[in-house]
Design brief:
Blueprint lengths: L3 H19 L4 E5 L4 H14 L4 E5 L8 H11 L2 E4 L3 H13 L6 H23 L1 E3 L5 H5 L21 H10 L4 H4 L12 H5 L3 H10 L5 H13 L17
Parallel strand pairs: 1-2, 1-4, 2-3
């Protein structure tokens, strides 16, 4: 049985200890999307460090239809925030890539946006003195729903060992409004939800991760295939090991 209060308290203590050891005067930099992961991460940082040491950065690309939720998140948490629109940066990079002889496709565009956002968070971190939060969860990482060197990057990761189900439980324990916890994530390209694209629900995935149970053989095969194909995103980079004589 998942004890949300116990795990929440342990994460808060872990964040506090991490900052004590790596930057007592630094703040937590959190990219705020309006989704459950960034909201729960920011709320945990607020409890661990205080709202004055948490900076929310909103990173829309042009007009973002649901950016109002992100504004509601930072207001609810009482944290400072900044809005940095990445539309021009992304457009200029696409033009340069096209000029170099490569046609930017949807996959390249989506991953590039994630990497531009992470680059921006690190730029802000260098300016204000902060540590960047990774907001990924275990379920999304398991099936590759993250971008290498994009949203999968960061200095510390409070949620990457928790499933979607567990992240939501932590959010409820933190007293977050339901709209922040249950906001349906979309891929940002097709308008489809994560679950529509994956072909299975997070409840099914989370049960498989925690219990090893999946009654649908086709879904199990799909999960296993995605997990195997995307392990490179969560494993350390392979390095050639030079043998030296002692």
């Amino acid at each position: 049985m998942f004890d949300a209060k116990k795990i929440k308290d342990e994460i808060v203590k872990w964040i506090r200890n991490y900052f004590d050891e790596n930057g007592k005067d630094l703040c937590a930099i959190v990219g705020i999307s309006g989704g459950k992961d960034s909201t729960v991460t920011a709320a945990l940082c607020v409890e661990a460090l205080g709202p004055e040491r948490v900076l929310g950065v909103l990173l829309p690309e042009g007009l973002q239809k649901d950016i109002g939720v992100s504004f509601e998140v930072v207001k609810h948490l009482g944290i400072k925030h900044s809005v940095i629109n990445i539309k021009d940066s992304a457009a200029m990079l696409s033009v340069s890539i096209n000029d170099g002889g490569f046609l930017v496709n949807n996959l390249a565009r989506a991953n590039t946006l994630a990497r531009i956002r992470m680059t921006t968070l690190y730029a802000v971190s260098a300016i204000v003195g902060g540590l960047v939060a990774n907001t990924c969860n275990l379920s999304e990482d398991w099936v590759g729903y993250s971008t290498k060197f994009g949203d999968s990057a960061g200095d510390f990761s409070p949620l990457s060992r928790l499933t979607v189900t567990e992240v939501k439980a932590i959010g409820r324990e933190l007293g977050l409004p339901q709209q922040f916890i249950d906001k349906v994530p979309e891929d940002g390209l097709s308008g489809l939800s994560d679950e529509d694209n994956l072909g299975f629900t997070y409840d099914t995935l989370d049960r498989y991760i925690r219990e090893g149970v999946c009654e649908d053989a086709a879904v199990k095969e799909r999960i296993d295939r995605r997990h195997k194909n995307n392990l490179h995103k969560i494993k350390a980079m392979p390095c050639f090991e030079l043998e030296t004589n002692s």
